[in-house]
Design brief:
The protein contains 5 helices and 13 strands. By secondary structure, it is an alpha+beta fold.
């Protein structure tokens, strides 16, 4: 049995934060003894590592490796591990475990508190969050029987990629990531807590907009168990979401979408969500999602056609993907 909960920060990574700037005026006067110049602010790449530092077969390694495989398969750039973001995200996972609740935000005074938002928690460990966009996602679930750590990591990632408001973990145009994980027990069964902190919104997508899933993707969840907030126009579980994304300056509007079982020709009932249609105001302008309002079938091939505009210019994408026998 698996029970899953997800949450998404209301800010997400909707826009890049302004670069910090300072200025001042001059003045006359007699010379005095020199003063020590202020230390240079940390670089936005402080904490980046070229070789992943996650322990072998850990939940963190599984999430990082699989997430980058998904991104690169569909043309999105691989994310770079940032050890400062790792620390901030591990702190948040520990906070959720101690609070026994999934939340993107933290409350001052509670056990494990290190900052209200993902950006606050990144800044608390020395990441220069004032100069780059910072956002993230959280997840928690419990299972019987117990899984390996890698299995917990895979299931946490399934939760994110099956979420209409969480598919951004694969399609957002960012370059850095921190992964956090904690484990407790619930009713005698293992309970896993995970989070991602994503940073550095950049124009890194070529020939966009791109999609996930994309041509040839296999093994993705055929249904989602739940999400906070609940996606519009769903009642119970829904099917594999199709994330569409461009660069930060882009505005994507979806016009039509079809998701059809290639063996039977049966179409799914598809909902369209972009920044102009999202009642929760969580989808950024550069992202959109098409999703079946009911679960798809496991181990099944689906043909997708999506049309819309990016910055007012028409685009269309057609491809096939195959679900796995897994849920998010």
């Amino acid at each position: 049995m698996k029970s899953s909960k997800l949450a998404l920060t209301a800010v997400s990574i909707a826009a890049a934060m302004a670069l910090a700037a300072c200025g001042g005026g001059g003045g006359g006067g007699n010379a005095s003894s020199p003063t020590t110049p202020p230390a240079a602010p940390p670089s936005p790449t402080t904490g980046n590592v070229t070789t992943p530092q996650y322990a072998a077969n850990s939940a963190e390694q599984t999430i990082f490796t699989t997430l980058n495989q998904y991104r690169q398969q569909c043309g999105f750039p691989a994310l770079t591990e940032n050890t400062l973001l790792d620390k901030a995200t591990a702190n948040h996972s520990s906070y959720m475990a101690q609070a026994n609740a999934v939340s993107d935000s933290e409350t001052a005074g509670k056990a494990g508190y290190t900052g209200v938002t993902f950006s606050d928690r990144a800044a608390a460990v020395g990441f220069p969050s004032g100069s780059v966009a910072v956002g993230g996602v959280s997840n928690g679930f419990w299972t019987t029987p117990a899984l390996t750590e890698a299995g917990y990591g895979q299931n946490l990632l399934y939760g994110w990629i099956s979420g209409v408001y969480h598919i951004g973990t694969v399609v957002w145009p960012v370059t850095q990531v921190g992964v956090g994980y904690a484990e407790t027990t619930f009713n005698g069964a293992p309970q896993a807590w995970g989070a991602l902190t994503l940073a550095n919104l950049q124009s890194v997508i070529s020939n966009g907009p791109l999609t996930f899933p994309c041509q040839g993707t296999t093994g993705v969840p055929y249904k989602a168990l739940g999400e906070t907030p609940t996606p519009p126009n769903t009642s119970g579980a829904w099917g594999t979401p199709i994330g569409v994304a461009g660069n930060p300056q882009d505005t994507i509007v979806l016009q039509t979408a079809s998701i059809t079982d290639t063996s039977t020709g049966t179409p799914a009932s598809v909902q369209l969500l972009d920044s102009s249609k999202d009642p929760n105001k969580l989808i950024p302008a550069y992202e959109a999602v098409a999703y079946p309002s009911s679960p798809l079938s496991p181990n099944t091939s689906y043909a997708v056609t999506i049309t819309g505009t990016v910055n007012g210019v028409a685009f269309s994408r057609s491809f096939t993907f195959t679900t796995g026998n897994v849920v998010g």
